[in-house]
Amino acid sequence: MSTLQGNNSASKECEGSSEANATTDNTDNATLQAINGLKTEFSSKLDGLLSAVNSVKSELTSCQKRISETEERISNAEDDVVSLQRRAESLEEQVAKLTSKLDSSENRSRISNLRLVNLPEAAEGKDICAFLESWLPDALRLAPPASPIAIERAHWLSGPKLANGPPRPLIMALNPQIDRSTGSDTKATSAGLKYIVQQENRPLSYLRTAWFLEQVDFVG
After folding, report:
1. Is the overall model pTM greater than 0.70, yes or no?
2. Cα–Cα distances in angstroms (integers) from residue 149 to residues 18, 92, 105, in the given order
3. Which keywords, in A-to-Z order, does the entry hold (predicted)?
4. pLDDT on residue 115
């Protein structure tokens, strides 16, 4: 009887121990599952974070490359601007020199021009140069020159012709071989309209008349 009770007691203790071991195993399994779940969740989140970091890193690399290219283009543009500024300054100097030469050339070409004031318009007829070549020596009472006066060109000064106003000045250019001072000390005495012959020398930088021939009378 005592032996049976002992066996029963031992059997109950074994069953209790087995149940305790089973409970411990279940707890350990649940813990491992929870840990594995956390690892999976952390791994998924870390993968997303790493992907975002890599994307930002790639964008930063691209931005850095674009910034470097932009800096290089800006540097090249600044060099071009400096070169263009120097070229513009050089061109301005050349323009100033050419303008000065042009003014000087124009002044030299105009210095041979003579302006005839108060000559009635249409008095010259069809050939103004031929008229002046024959009329000037008589009007200025000149001694017969070594060579006839030759008029290279002549024209009335541009501008409207006034019906009741004074005649427009007449611009003429003598042959370069003719002495333009001829007649500067002569004066006609015939009655008529007054006119003046003067040198057309008026540089662009300032307006002036170089010299005047004597005021004489026009014999109509």
Report:
1. no
2. 151, 44, 25
3. Coiled coil
4. 77
